[in-house]
Specification:
3 strands
């Protein structure tokens, strides 16, 4: 996530030369990613949707987001 980024709430994911943007409210993905990496990002997203929304709100206020653990 980037501070004071545009709506809708979203996060960016990068993998090598690939980059996607994931809408936090809907899970809609823009961009291209290898299938396996995309599955992992979307699994992480599903597990952390609430925390992602809370961090989006914090970032929009210029506050420091809370760490979100990676998949294990």
């Amino acid at each position: 996530m980037y501070y004071r980024d545009h709506l809708p709430p979203h996060f960016h994911a990068k993998y090598g030369e690939y980059e996607i943007i994931v809408d936090i409210n809907t899970g809609v993905v823009e961009g291209k990613f290898p299938k396996r990496a995309l599955r992992l990002v979307l699994e992480w997203y599903e597990l952390n949707k609430e925390a992602l929304l809370k961090n989006w709100e914090k970032i929009q206020k210029g506050e420091v987001p809370e760490p979100i653990p990676p998949l294990e």
